[in-house]
Amino acid sequence: MTLDIRVLGPVDYAATVQAMQDYTASRSPDTPDALWICEHPTLYTQGLAGKADHLLNPGNIPVVATNRGGQVTFHGPGQVVAYPLIDLQRAGYYVKEYVYRVEEAVIRTLAHFGITGHRVGGAPGIYVRLDDPHGHALLPQRPQRRIGTSPPVPDFEGLGKIAALGIKVSRHCTYHGVALNVAMDLEPYSRINPCGYAGLRTVDLSTIGVHTTWDEVAQLLGQQLSTRLSP
């Protein structure tokens, strides 16, 4: 079954979430899978597990509670947000593989621009080396570090986060999705602990020397997600 790809452009966040929920709730086994690609106005979104103390100084930026997984993140102009609406049961893979496929689509999109995207164990999303975003060397096997007797935590040393992932699965069907930073005002990230991690650097393509357009990245990411999420 083909993926119905819609490039929506700038859209309201709450209305888009409601539309995804309605689409998911009314699905039948024959409803086509869809991919909505959009851009949101400036706001913070707080996931189901979100802790208020990760919102350091939101100021005049709205904070919207949402029903995806994960902690607080930021949306704004210059960010490509992709919402795959996939029936996992029909596609034939589980949530863990779905996350891997979405991340792989981001990695392949970055590779188009010569940027190497990395996964970090225990921290969904895609990261780049700040000192060498074009280098192909794998990260050392240090995805987690232990401080005293505390549980191990992801190790972000030398890395910047370029794509955030937050998903919801209802009745085997996915919504919410992934946000890839293209050319943004990154200052609002300094007012939160991004995805719940204090001091985690956040970058976009323009920061690391890639000058492209929202439309080009939206098209590339859409193509990659369409390919990677097929059964």
In brief:
This protein is α+β, with helices and mostly antiparallel strands and 231 residues long.
Describe, in plain words, how this protein is organized in 3D.
With 231 residues, the chain is of the alpha+beta class. The protein is built from 4 helices and 13 strands. The strands form 3 sheets. Strands 1, 2, 6, 7, 8, 11, 12 and 13 form an 8-stranded mixed β-sheet that branches. It has a 3-stranded mixed β-sheet with strand order 4-3-5, with no helix packed on it.
Q: Give average pLDDT, whole number.
A: 94
String of helices and strands: EHEEEEEHHEEEEEEEH
At the fourth level of CATH, the homologous superfamily is Bira Bifunctional Protein, Domain 2
Structural class of the helices, strands and pairings? Answer: alpha+beta
**Main sheet: strands, sense, barrel:** 8 strands, mixed
The residue ranges in which pLDDT falls below 50 over 5 or more consecutive positions are none
Q: Give the distance, in angstroms, between the N- and C-terminal Cα atoms.
A: 9 Å
CATH architecture: 2-Layer Sandwich
Q: How many separate structural domains? A: 1
Number of helices: 4
Count of distinct strands: 13
Cα shape: globular
Radius of gyration: 17 Å
Query: What multimeric state do the chains show?
Result: single chain
> For the record, what CATH class applies?
Alpha Beta
> Might you state the CATH topology name?
BirA Bifunctional Protein, domain 2
> Approximately how much helix is present in the residues?
10-25%
